[in-house]
Design brief:
seven-stranded mixed β-sheet, 31% helix, GNAT family N-acetyltransferase, N-acetyltransferase activity, 7 strands, Aminopeptidase
Length: 164
C-alpha cells in the first residue's frame, strides 16, 4: 500500500471505467460519467488522501481516506460525535477481484486511523451496491442509517466502526 501519485491517474480511471460498467450491468447506478471523475482523484492525490494497492507494479485498487464528512451526514444517528476518519471512493480492478484487496484497503484505512489516534471510522455506499454493503457488514461496520446523496433516486447506507 502506498500513497497514490499523479502518474497513477490513468490506471485509476481504467479501474473506474470497468467498475462503472460492472455496476451498470448489475442495475447499480452509484457511479457514472459525472462521478467520480479524474479531477476528484487528482484532488485526493494533492491532499495526500488517496492510497493504492499494487501487485508487481500495477495498481489493482485504491481508497480515499480523510476527515471530510459529507454535509448529508449531519442529522444521522451516529453513535458518537468524536472525530472520525471517513472512507470515500474505493474500488478494485475487475481482474483482481476476490483476492482480498478490498478488505486490505479498508484494513489499511483502519490502521491509518489508529496510527493517528482515531478510533472511529465512517463511510457510506449506495443501497444497490450489494458487494460493498456485504463487505462492510462482514468486516464489522454497523449500518446506522441512510441518506439521499448525489441526486440518486435510491438511498445511500451509512456505516460506522469503532476500533476499540
Amino acid at each position: 500500500m502506498r500513497k497514490a501519485e499523479h502518474c497513477d491517474l490513468d490506471r485509476i480511471m481504467q479501474i473506474i471505467k470497468g467498475t462503472i460498467e460492472e455496476m451498470n450491468a448489475g442495475g447499480n447506478d452509484q457511479w457514472d460519467d459525472n462521478y467520480p471523475q479524474s479531477k476528484d482523484f487528482a484532488r485526493d492525490i494533492e491532499n495526500g488522501d488517496l492510497f493504492v494497492e499494487e501487485t508487481d507494479g500495477k495498481v489493482e485498487g485504491f481508497i480515499c481516506i480523510n476527515y471530510e464528512e459529507p454535509e448529508e451526514y449531519n442529522g444521522l444517528n451516529w453513535s458518537s460525535d468524536e472525530k472520525a476518519m471517513v472512507i470515500h471512493r474505493m474500488s478494485v480492478s475487475i481482474d483482481s477481484r476476490k483476492q482480498g484487496i478490498a478488505t486490505r484497503l479498508i484494513r489499511y484505512a483502519e490502521e491509518l486511523a489508529a496510527a493517528k489516534g482515531i478510533t472511529y471510522l465512517k463511510t457510506d455506499t449506495y443501497s444497490f451496491n450489494t458487494k460493498m454493503n456485504g463487505l462492510l457488514a462482514k468486516i464489522g461496520y454497523k449500518r446506522i442509517g441512510e441518506m439521499s446523496f448525489h441526486g440518486k433516486e435510491n438511498p445511500f447506507y451509512c456505516y460506522e466502526k469503532f476500533l476499540r
